[in-house]
Design brief:
The structure holds 3 protein chains of 3 kinds.
Chain A (H helix, E strand, L loop, with lengths): L9 H24 L6 H17 L2 E2 L6 E2 L4 H8 L1 H19 L7 H27 L3 H30 L6 H33 L1 H9 L8 H25 L3 H10 L9 H12 L5 H7 L7 H43 L1
Antiparallel strand pairs in A: 1-2
Chain B lengths: L3 H15 L10 H17 L5 H4 L4 H9 L4 H25 L3 E5 L2 E4 H26 L2 H10 L4 H31 L6 E2 H28 L16 H19 L2 H9 L1
Antiparallel strand pairs in B: 1-2
Chain C lengths: L1 E9 L5 E10 L4 E6 L5 H8 L7 E6 L2 E2 L5 H7 E4 L3 H4 L5 H11 L4 H15 L14 H13 L5 E5 L7 H13 L3 E5 L3 H7 L2 E6 L2 E7 H4 L3 H6 L13
Helix pairs in contact in C: 4-5, 4-6
Classes of the chains: A mainly alpha, B mainly alpha, C alpha/beta.
């Protein structure tokens, strides 16, 4: 359920990056304020590597014959405490984003939020901790793990839907998207929950002190559950409501804000750079009038598609030529470099 | 994610590429990070269906990949894995917007087709841009780059430690998995009911390892903070690169290059 | 140089690892510690640098007692080369790893650079400095870990199984290097042949106490004594046809 750059609008990307950065900043303050357990620094690093490796190990799910892997948010929170877990997950997601292009750099904020903040700072303190804190037994650990993972994954996948909708890149109607995402993630969550439960029960049996010390983590008692809930529901309303309305009216968030900043609609061609370029084009007598006219046909459902109506033929032809030019340029540079390298070697 | 071997070999390929010494590799890491983020922002700022407007953006990866001598194969392989995710989201556009956008050679092209194409293009451009960054910057450089961009040291330390131990833990997991499969010849993977003990064992080993690492740190005077060398400032040359590329990206964004080129021919 | 006075260490589960252990090392000596698994070798090393604090007895490094307030000073003087270099090389590249201790002790970046280039020259690892630690071979990792300790110019170096995981040629190289290394060394090992070759003196541990002590050539060659300690003769003395 990685959110990807290509499905993201700039506004949603920036908003979610800010939200995740805030949550991480808060976590750093928490873990440094309360007796910074210096032992946990290497522990978080190694556990990050563990999650990375664990996600590569597929296990077979009975009956279905398909395979799954763990996400690890709740597992880490139970082993390290929620703040340490969030920072660990964030590091893992960043490395995956860099080396495997999972999601993408701009979608990292969304992904940290969906797979880190929601399980670690919401599902863990609200569901896992209260159940296990009363009494640490295998039954309770199992119930807590399954519930926390399932609910964490449900809000996570709902967040993916909301972020995608707010971005307005896909046309999938909200309800169909939800109807598609939630049941799939219910199944995934049940499996992951059971595996998480089995792992934690094993650890409880072999090394109960690991779970107990995470449970004792004094910094966690300070999580203001109400405050977190209020902020999150506000954020949900904001992204779900305002942003999606805004996004569908202005499919192009950045352009809209540029217009807002310069105080004029950039496409009208009055702004400095644009006017200058238009002027150059006029002088070169290359300006196909319709290309720009069509562009201003925004605000329709398919404002940008409308642009393609105007430019269809010249656009497609030009696009192909441009593409070829890009590839040729690359090839040419490679060629030249190769020649120079062999000359240098000789 | 795929299995352990292919993940590790993907990382190896990128690491190997990052060891080269080209004009792109020599750029400071923070410079490349900033440029990549600006490029990505520009790409995602394109609206639905701006296919012909997106195409000129291929110039950036084409030129940088050539200058940075990045093996095309490494990027392409990853691209093939990344595309299906967008395919799923993009297909909905094919189904839900069937209005004819324009007619090309007698075939009606729907708005959905156009926006579908634009999603796939965006995916290709975004994935490539990120992989280019990591294929020309080694992880250590990236860490120092993050520090100079004011990413908190705790986070950078986490990223570096995780990165350092991925191979070690993956190797351990891989050995355990082989040991398991050798004694369970009819299984393709680890049975779900054994996953608790399998991962649990791996976690306990990881905890023990972190204890030893902690001891090794203590022995060399560690007191809760890992010191790095001084932050590198972005040089004048770096700023120049950022400016030039940004202006180029903005030009592409606001000038319809494809239409311009097209009009030359028509 | 190192004085260990009747120390006892008990694990939280009640198991006594070291019991009234007593011995000392003179400056410049190379001393081997041998003994079965669980005899207390690693525990002893960890006690010397204060990772474990014995509940009884005391340890003096160059006259300074190992206790909480002296730990920083003790760890500057006594370095530990761990058994598994993967545990010791935790930074992502070799340079930063060697620099880790120096930076913790407040050396300036310039000093750090000078010292690292010095030690890299001695060990012949100039080319490895910018490599990622996880890319090194087993032997290279071992040398890099050694460099990260030696760069701090300790007067006492503790080794935990320095020859484990090494192929024969690399082991030989390391042994030759250790022979030429002029610092006081305490080497915990199962590699009796190495102990025989490079140690002046050996200490045989059994059940957390000193079972025997003396010149390496005498102790390690004593078949009865070795057998009683749960060990056997070094391979080179076993007369295998």
């Amino acid at each position: 359920m990685h959110m990807s750059d290509a499905l993201l609008s700039a506004t949603v990307g920036v908003t979610m990056t800010a939200a995740s950065a805030g949550a991480i900043g808060h976590s750093i303050r928490k873990i440094t304020k309360f007796e910074m357990d210096e032992k946990k620094i290497p522990m978080m690093g190694v556990m990050g590597a563990f999650v990375f490796a664990a996600q590569m190990i597929n296990f077979t799910i009975p009956v279905t014959g398909s395979s799954g892997h763990i996400g690890g948010g709740i597992l880490l929170a139970a082993l390290l405490g929620p703040y340490h877990a969030l920072i660990t997950i964030a590091s893992v997601l960043l490395i995956q984003c860099l080396f495997f292009a999972d999601g993408g750099l701009l979608a990292l904020g969304c992904n940290i939020f969906n797979m880190g903040v929601l399980p670690c700072l919401v599902a863990y303190p609200l569901i896992f901790r209260p159940i296990v804190r009363k009494a640490m037994t295998k039954k309770r650990i199992t119930a807590a793990s399954v519930l926390a993972v399932v609910i964490g994954l449900q809000v996570g996948s709902l967040a993916v839907v909301l972020q995608t909708q707010a971005s307005g890149i896909t046309e999938l109607p909200f309800l169909s998207f939800v109807a598609l995402m939630q049941p799939i993630h219910l199944a995934i969550g049940a499996v992951e929950g059971l595996v998480t439960a089995a792992v934690l029960c094993f650890i409880y049996q072999m090394r109960s002190e690991i779970l107990e010390s995470a449970m004792r983590d004094s910094s966690v008692n300070g999580i203001p559950v109400k405050k977190v809930l209020v902020i999150l529901s506000l954020a949900a309303v904001l992204t779900g409501g305002f942003l999606s309305a805004y996004a569908s009216a202005n499919p192009d968030g950045l352009e809209w804000s540029i217009a807002g900043v310069t105080g004029e609609a950039e496409l009208e061609g009055d702004s400095g750079l644009h006017a200058m370029i238009a002027g150059i084009q006029e002088k070169a007598a290359l300006l196909p009038d319709y290309a720009f006219k069509a562009e201003s046909a925004e605000n329709s459902m398919f404002g940008d598609a409308a642009e393609t109506v105007g430019t269809s033929v010249s656009g497609i032809a030009g696009g192909l030529v441009t593409m070829a030019a890009a590839v040729l340029t690359g090839a040419l540079i490679s060629r030249l470099k190769k020649r120079r390298n062999t000359e240098a070697a000789a | 994610m795929q299995d352990i071997k292919s993940s590790i070999s993907q990382m190896n390929a990128l690491e190997l590429s990052a060891q080269k010494n080209t004009i792109i590799h020599r750029l400071q890491a923070p410079v490349k990070i900033i440029t990549t983020v600006i490029y990505l922002l520009i790409i995602i700022s394109y609206g639905q269906g701006q296919v012909s407007r997106l195409i000129p953006c291929f110039f950036y990866p084409a030129v940088v990949m050539a200058l940075g001598e990045i093996p095309f194969k490494t990027i392409a392989g990853r691209l093939l894995i990344a595309l299906p995710f967008s395919l799923f989201a993009g297909i909905s556009n094919l189904m839900f917007s069937r209005e004819t956008a324009f007619i090309l050679g007698g075939i009606a092209v729907t708005a959905g087709m156009v926006s579908f194409a634009s999603i796939m293009l965006k995916t290709a451009l975004c994935v490539t841009a990120v992989l280019i960054l990591i294929a020309t910057t080694d992880m250590n450089g990236l860490a120092y780059g993050m520090l100079s961009l004011r990413v908190p040291p705790v986070i950078v330390t986490q990223i570096m430690l995780t990165y350092r131990y991925i191979g070690v833990i993956a190797e351990e997991a891989s050995v355990m998995r082989h040991a398991y499969l050798l004694r369970a010849p009819n299984e393709k993977g680890i049975r779900m009911k054994d996953m608790g003990a399998f991962l649990g064992q791996l976690i306990i080993r990881s905890f023990d390892r972190s204890e030893r690492i902690y001891n090794a740190m203590k022995c060399r005077g560690y007191e809760g903070r890992i010191a790095y060398s001084d932050r590198e400032k972005i040089s004048l040359k770096g700023w120049a690169y950022i400016t030039v590329t940004s202006v180029f990206f903005l030009l592409l964004r606001f000038v319809n290059v494809s239409a311009l080129v097209g009009s030359l021919f028509l | 140089m190192l004085k260990i006075e009747s120390i006892s260490v008990t694990y939280p589960d009640g198991h006594k690892v070291l019991e009234h252990l007593d011995f000392h090392i003179e400056k410049g000596e190379t001393v081997g510690i041998v003994g079965t698994n669980g005899a207390g070798k690693s525990t002893l090393l960890m006690s010397v640098v204060g990772i474990l604090i014995p509940e009884e007895g005391r340890i003096l490094v160059e006259g300074t007692e190992v206790c909480k307030k002296n730990l920083s000073e003790i760890r500057r003087r006594a370095g530990v080369v761990f058994q598994n270099p993967d545990d010791q090389l935790f930074m992502s590249n070799v340079y930063d790893d060697i620099a880790f201790g120096l930076r913790n002790y407040g050396d300036s970046e310039e000093t750090v650079r000078e010292k690292i280039s010095g030690i890299a020259g001695v060990l012949g690892i100039e080319k490895l400095l910018q490599s990622h630690s996880h890319k090194l071979s087993g032997g290279e990792k071992r040398i890099a870990a050694l460099a990260s300790i030696l760069v701090m110019e300790p007067s006492l170096v503790l080794f935990d199984e320095p020859t484990s995981f090494l192929d024969p040629k690399t082991r030989r190289k390391l042994m030759n290097f250790l022979k030429g290394l002029e610092v006081t060394k305490l080497i915990a090992t199962h590699d009796l042949d190495m102990a025989l070759e490079i140690c002046d003196r050996v200490l045989v541990l059994k059940d957390g106490a000193v079972f025997a002590e003396g010149r390496a050539r005498e102790i390690l060659a004593d078949e009865k004594l070795m057998d009683a300690a749960g060990l056997e003769l070094p391979f080179c003395m076993q007369g295998i046809e």
